[in-house]
Hints:
Layout: H1 3-10, E1 15-19, H2 27-38, E2 44-47, H3 59-68, E3 73-78, H4 84-96, E4 101-105, H5 126-137, E5 154-159, H6 166-179, E6 183-186, H7 192-205, E7 210-212, E8 214-217, H8 221-230, H9 238-246, H10 250-265, E9 273-278, H11 284-291
Amino acid sequence: xxxxxxxxxxxxxxxxxxxxxxxxxxxxxxxxxxxxxxxxxxxxxxxxxxxxxxxxxxxxxxxxxxxxxxxxxxxxxxxxxxxxxxxxxxxxxxxxxxxxxxxxxxxxxxxxxxxxxxxxxxxxxxxxxxxxxxxxxxxxxxxxxxxxxxxxxxxxxxxxxxxxxxxxxxxxxxxxxxxxxxxxxxxxxxxxxxxxxxxxxxxxxxxxxxxxxxxxxxxxxxxxxxxxxxxxxxxxxxxxxxxxxxxxxxxxxxxxxxxxxxxxxxxxxxxxxxxxxxxxxxxxxxxxxxxxxxxxxx
Length: 298
């Protein structure tokens, strides 16, 4: 059984997940080095699928490499680049290697990446992909062809609590839940009121859906500005930007901000833990996890 599933479904302990950096070189030595940093703190780690429409080592191979180095993968699959055959192939390929945690998402448009001339696929959307994964977990491909034994998938998805229209985001979460998602990793939200409204709304209509908000470690105002300007769906309030820019030590101030966002998120209905994206790649991640009361695994 997935340890992530066991903890989210059968324990009251907080769950912490992280993002494995995209792999572009360095071989297994690079994977081993990153895994050593993440393994003490996190219950599961995302193997991304060409994030922000940039080509990297594949989701399946990255997930396998992560598992070889002691991490429990959550394998992301995006609908942007693959038709339904390739998506089902990704799922079964993961299952072949004992990888059962999935996160299904539509994916950023190719215009977000460095090869905007690439052809879009979008044969199905994320809710349809979730439903396919659920059907496969009961023993059939989308065509109806049998799978024996059925893969033991634990299905997740993503959602953005901060992007308008806000009520629609809650309904999207419900749609994904009904399709078969058991947990949602949420996009970073620098508007605590929006995150709170989203979590309350989801908890009222899908109380069993586990929510995992994201926090991001950056070095200062420049990192906040990049996300605000370049990452679709992320908005950093001007007051938040000014707070970091005007601080005597912006690096310290942005860490305080991140801790505040994390602590607030953990108080909200339906929230079962946090997802951490680390753009600093230094000791800050250890400091944050300690401040959140996390004890490193030995």
